[in-house]
């Protein structure tokens, strides 16, 4: 059990590490278009993302699937950019059920990519260790706790700006999404594997 909590702490720190903010940016981009009233949509997207990144994390750790680390490091900021661009496109028109379904499918695919990214870090931590299940479960738990923290923070900032400062939702979405895009473009350039 001690091992579990140790790896939970590492998973939590890995996502919340401001020096490695790619996962925070993705979560921001994912929930920026939503308010607390849309909690079912947020829960759906976060659940899809969680399931898929846990699947690819486990597949990679147990060496069922192996991927090129350089391409994963490049694709992670691409997932952030595509999610942010979708937000801009969707905020300029009325959202539809179809666009949410498309977003859910894309989020699942992006979750697979992020899971492979998590596995790179986890495998470095586990070098030489034989027993992987409890550490993997702890690490994944830490990731999930950190995701809840990030999502709650984004929703709280949105609520403060909208209710407290009376900022229209559309301006919040366009403004914050634009910031995410500006931060992400240099990440894509820096991680290009070619």
TrEMBL record:
InterPro entries: Put_HupE_UreJ. The keyword Cell inner membrane does not apply. The keyword Transmembrane applies. Keywords: Membrane, Transmembrane, Transmembrane helix. It holds the Pfam family HupE_UreJ_2. It comes from the Bacteria. The chain crosses the membrane at residues 20-36, 43-65, 71-89, 96-116, 136-159, 171-189. Coiled coil: none annotated. Signal peptide: none annotated. This is HupE/UreJ family protein. It comes from Muriicola soli.
């Amino acid at each position: 059990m001690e091992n579990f909590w140790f790896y939970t702490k590492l998973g939590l720190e890995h996502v919340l590490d401001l020096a490695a903010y790619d996962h925070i940016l993705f979560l921001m981009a994912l929930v920026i278009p939503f308010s607390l009233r849309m909690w079912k949509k947020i829960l759906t997207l976060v659940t899809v993302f969680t399931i898929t990144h846990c699947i690819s994390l486990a597949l990679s750790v147990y060496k069922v699937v192996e991927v090129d680390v350089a391409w994963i490091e490049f694709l992670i900021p691409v997932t952030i950019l595509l999610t942010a661009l979708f937000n801009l496109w969707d905020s300029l028109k009325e959202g539809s059920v179809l666009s949410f379904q498309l977003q859910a499918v894309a989020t699942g695919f992006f979750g697979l990519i992020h899971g492979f990214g998590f596995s790179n870090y986890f495998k470095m931590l586990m070098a030489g260790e034989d027993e992987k299940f409890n550490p993997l479960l702890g690490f994944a738990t830490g990731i999930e706790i950190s995701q809840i923290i990030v999502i709650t923070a984004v929703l709280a900032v949105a609520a403060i700006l909208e209710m407290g400062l009376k900022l229209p939702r559309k301006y919040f979405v366009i403004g914050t999404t634009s910031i995410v895009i500006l931060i992400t473009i240099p990440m894509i350039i820096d991680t290009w594997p070619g």
